[in-house]
Amino acid sequence: MKSDIKLITSEGKRLDGRGPEDIRKIKIEAGVLHRADGSCYLEWGGNKVLVAVYGPREAVPRHTQNPLRAIVQARYNMAAFSVEDRKRPGPDRRSVEISKVISEALEKVILTEQFPRATVNVNIEVLDAEAGTRCAGLTAAGVALIDAGIPMRDIPVAIAAGKINGQVVLDLGKEEDNFGDADLPVAISPRTGEILLLQMDGHLTVDEFNQAFDLAVKGCHAVSEIQKKAVIHKYQTIAAEVQE
Amino acid sequence: MTIVPIIKRDYITNLAAQGKRIDGRNFDHYRKIEIETKVVNKAEGSARVKIGNTQVLVGIKMGLGEPFPDTPNMGVLSTAAELVPLASPDFESGPPREDAIELARVVDRGVRESEVVDVQKLVVTPGELVWLVFIDIHVLDYDGNLFDAASLGALAALSTTIVPAKRFEDQLPEGHQKEDFPLPMSEPPISCTAVKINDFVLFDPCFDEEVIADARLTVATDHNGDIRAMQKGLSGSFSKEEIQKVIKGALDNGKEIRKKLKEVTSS
Amino acid sequence: MPNEGRQIVIPGQILGDMPAFKPGRGTFVENKKIYAERLGVMNIQDNFINVIPLKGRYEPIVGDVVIGVVEEASTSNWMVDINAPYPALLHVHEVPWEIEFADTEKYLNTGDAILAKVLSVDESKKLQITLNDRNLFKLKGGHIIEFEPSIYRRIMGKQYSMIEIIQKYTRCRIKVGKNGRIWLDGDAEGIAKVLQAISKIESEAATFGLTDRIEELLKKDAKDVR
């Protein structure tokens, strides 16, 4: 089934018209929710993701507390209507796993030692899903954490690279995700280049992996610029609006 | 900026005694209502409703399945609500709690009993195959009055729903309509909610008002000015006069909201 | 005015090198480079680079005057919510009253508000507060509102200029806690005006000339009333 579908032309043109290294359109807005301590709305191609951050606040129940640092509890959740066939509401095995790897990635950049016994809750809601929701969610979480004033070493960012019809490409789209050969989501700390999240499924040669990995890191840096612009835009606008 | 809950009650009731509310509204006025439809590509219909700072997203998904044995000639409606922890520091993850279930059932009743969706037109093979309509309510930001926001969101989402017959053509019998078609709808009833705090009746409570409210009443009215659904909540009580007051306010506000809903869904 | 660049900085942003500069609040150091740890406005004072936060929870520092709300009274202490990530402990020895065993509820009960001072913050961020100072007391009546703790300095203004203006035009009694809480008492009109002013400060915290704009706002209202 995989090789039946032509996902990329010999000239390197993909189904949606992108070249191999082109990223889908990304739109980021910080501070969109009233109740949350920090929030972010992000559109990435056909993905729509909303993230709310609460905390740091005392972790309950008490046995979850770490006496030396804050714990980071990300919760990735897909809305029932975000996919083609309705998803049963609530957590399933997939969302629990994604929540875990995102929590661990965020924990690395948050200065958790400043808040012993506390928790930082990062609630990621996928409202519209079209390949790459975990990367979109983690990228939006980075912005929401800044908006909540959480101290961090860096702003985490993610993107997936992959392989379609034998060729390595950046930011898999819907059909590419379904019928491609491999998917490699990567999250990094762009300042230090540290890898925060790495998963792969499919089939890659070592050379292909290296190529895809480098492409993903390059993509992360590009997305990182969009993140930073969104935050600065939000807070500069507030400054500009009243400057007359 | 928020007012701290424990001390809040006095402040709100003192203001109310002077005919005022914390955000400057009249007792029977709604906050600004915004309705945006077709916001989720993957859903068959969708709407985002904002009432003040409260934000609700409703998505409609459809599928094919068996009808209920006692209604073989009707499509199936089902409503679920998620109070996801994104929306409030007090919402927790896990299975829906009674608040979410009450919310889903009140919206469900408003949609079902008013026959706003013509379920008889959703039958493919009587007794065997009918269209299933899933209404999923996703609360995004909780600043009070979820009932009205969710009901309005459900109506707006249903009004823009396209039945995905083309996608399901393999499952549809020979000779049956295989082109997509709009969900058959009739005039919707509009839900309006008021709360009672001491002896004051306030419409469209914001969060600060809702947490100190003694009683709550939701009234759904239709375009003929008739009542189509009611739900009283919380442990306080209403007098008959107060109920009349809520009905009148529900009719007046309902008219305005219906107009707004029509503007958005008919374009 | 020096140090008022109001340059907005974000986490991980490089702010300067050591030893030319020294790392101040809201920064961290890696390989002798100073970075911002959070969203804020950069401020350099005596070669110290600081990031004044624009958002975030209140982080208690010993000596801070805070407004607390009692959560629970036990036999020999109270747990008090001071808007920090953790509740603070108020021991019976740290109040100005002679309290007999298990008589704590007579003096302070759940929901009571107090003006207190942060007494200690230990390594695991266990907090203690005290009422033992003549400027500290139980707050009777009035209302408490919460604001973004990071704008405390903006609400006070230079040499208390902002808070004095607010007090002057609203005739409210106002106590501002460093923990993002204000206690106020006055007539409904005055309270409404304070709320209006605080909202405005909150949304325009990162801008110049705020004190003048707040005075204008309150003055304009004052005319309307008279």
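The CA atoms of residues 110 and 224 of chain C lie 40 Å apart.
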